Amino acid sequence: MLTSQMIKEAALAAGADKCGIAPMSRFNGAPDEMNPQKLFPEAKSCIGFVFRIPRGVQRGIEEGTQFFQYPSMAYGGINEIFAPAVLYQVGKVIEDEGYEAFVYRNTGARGVVSDMDGAPGNTLSPEEQIEVTKHAKTATAHHRSVQFTRPTREGNTAPDLQFQFRLAAVACGLGEIGWSKMLLTPEFGPLQRVAFLFTDAELEYDEMYSGEPLCRKCGACVRECPGGCIPDLKSDKKITVNLDGKICEWADIDMWRCYAFYTHAGRYQNPFVPKEIWDKNEDGMLDLMEGVTDEANEQEILKVYNALAKYFPSWIGYNMAKCGGCIRGCVSVLEKKGGCMENRFHEPLRTQRPWKLDR
Ligand code: SF4
Ligand code: SF4
Predict the structure, then answer these.
(1) CB of 265 shorter than 6 A to ligand 1
(2) Domain residues for 287?
């Protein structure tokens, strides 16, 4: 007989760092276009997997010496290699017992609404759009949403159905969402990515996390964001969700702004772009990054990407993160002031003041 314990043992043996299981009823009330209950009607259980981000992949950015490892290992590596391999192995254990394993790896930009801002319809994906305009053999642009989708039968949600990964992780008892919108877990703080599997097997379920709040509401993520993308803790710009009785609350982050700063970091945090480029701000291409405009939208971001893409000529299918400010600020606080990462490492992530270019 298939049990939760069998699934968790298989998950850890295959390389997951943590596994939690929720009944599908925890998603009652979610909007249809983001409700995993709509994936298939017989689904009874949602299995969530945590994959830790090694702290060391942030070391190069923390020191200002190496920027490639974080996006390639923590985003590309986990999303494309480590997590799918675990889903595959655990799926086999479930299907050997006669139940279905609907694996769901991390995938962005496939829903009916934009995964950037929830807007329906035609929202561009700037970095891929640049690939199209400059190199591609086709004229088809990539988008943050599917454009012409429709329900395949009455009662269905139009494909591809995407759900909120971090809330699903909370539903599986894996952690809580911090002010920075990152998933925080007791074991790894903000350092993980997640993947899911849905099955028609009925299992034993984990409670949602109910210990000391994992987010210390310290504001380090707000202070250390180079783009000012995360509203202040006292701001009423926040999002509140009632997840089957558990109140989850996080800052209403300016996601388009983060899209620009996360990848290009800005004048003081991006050592790859010469000072003159920022000073010149040719054709206003860097208006958003330089604070000339506060209007963060896909047009402004496309300008930034076009202006700066060539200064870090590596490409792994993922944005080449250069900021990591919120995640490193969070780790640093949780290690030093107590909280979920206390005592995990012999030495703290941060041993000196964060660097900032003098220009
Ligand atoms: S990823 Fe970077 S730009 Fe985005 S919110 Fe975090 S610190 Fe700010
Ligand atoms: S940096 Fe502080 S406020 Fe921000 S998510 Fe982490 S613990 Fe919460």
Answers:
(1) no
(2) 273-311
Q: Check residue 343 and give its pLDDT.
A: 81
Closest to 293 in 3D by CA, of 252, 325, 256, 239 = 256
Judged against a pLDDT cut of 60, whether residue 166 lies above it is answered with yes
Tell me: pLDDT of 31 over 80: yes
Nearest bound ligand to CA 325?
1
Q: Which atom of ligand 2 is nearest to the CA of 222?
A: 4
Could you read off the pLDDT of 97-145 as tens digits, one per residue?
A: 999 999 999 987 777 777 777 777 666 666 655 555 555 555 555 567 7
Bridge partners of residue 49, in order along the sequence:
19, 195
Report the number of distinct structural domains present in the chain: 2
pTM over 0.70: yes
CB 166 less than 6 A from any atom of ligand 2: no
Identify whether residues 252 and 280 lie together within a single domain.
no
Phi/psi for 235 (5° steps) reads -70, 150
Q: Which ligand is nearest to the CA of 225?
A: 1
Cβ contact 234:193 at 8 Å? no
Token pair of 159, please? 């494909």
Asked whether residue 244 is assigned to any structural domain, the reply reads yes
220 within ligand 2 shell (Cβ under 6 A) = yes
